[in-house]
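Curious: why this fold?
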Amino acid sequence: MTIGLVLNAAQARLKSAGVDTPRLDAILLLAEASAMSEDHIRSRPEAPLTPEAGTAFEAMLQRRLRREPVSKIIGRREFWSLEFRTSPDVLDPRADSETLAAGVLAAIPDRAASLRIVDFGTGSGCLLLSLLHELPNATGVGIDVSPPALAIAQDNADRLGMSSRCIFRLGSWGRGIEGTFDILMSNPPYIESGGVPGLEPEVADYDPLLALDGGADGLDAYRALLPDMARLAVKNALAALEVGMGQDVAVSHLLAGAGFGQIAVLPDLSGIGRVVTGRKSVQIP
């Protein structure tokens, strides 16, 4: 059996299963199963595939046919041009969240400054570690309520050589956290509870519910988090929150009510208001 024949058959099966990118997914899985590069697979359709690689590929393909994400199958995903380990215990890093990283970086006049960053609900650590990658003198704290998620984040920090500049702590939002921070950010759960079952299977069935369900109106996490963000923010600290479609106005009001000014909404690549930012301006009793 040749690479081309195997890919064509896999593409057809994935398309029938409702996968949006069947050809790309088949290539990524075949590269993982065969230890061949993606370029080799694309350029050598006539090359033979070993029986061992074919068996491994079929096992991965069966998982993808059940709509398990490729990143969960191969155990890693790229974010901000860095490779992160992922697992069923963490929300899959997504391109939409790069809007938050880009927005924070755009608001920093001096990237060499010794900034303190806190990431609430850090998950895989992709946001915190991406910022540390761009800010060489910054340090960070990642907080999550899930011990398995914290283990993934710590492993990612180790693999990226950043473990000396960050710590990961078990906790619920900012409860029990002391000190102050220059940058406070979060990609909290913001899907309305009733909307979770209707999400794509890759999300609803394979991302942790704890990272998705934002309560009846999707805003529970923001209400719980913002008092801690205000308490831990230095004057003029930057707050950055990822939000769901149509939530930017409500979260902007919540952020303002917590003592943050200069509120701005940043669009993602689709033009949807994806991130709300603000600067700590007043002390709320």
Notes: The chain has two domains: 3-66, 88-280. The CA atoms of residues 34 and 53 lie 5 Å apart. Residues 88-280 form a domain with the Rossmann fold fold (CATH 3.40.50.150).
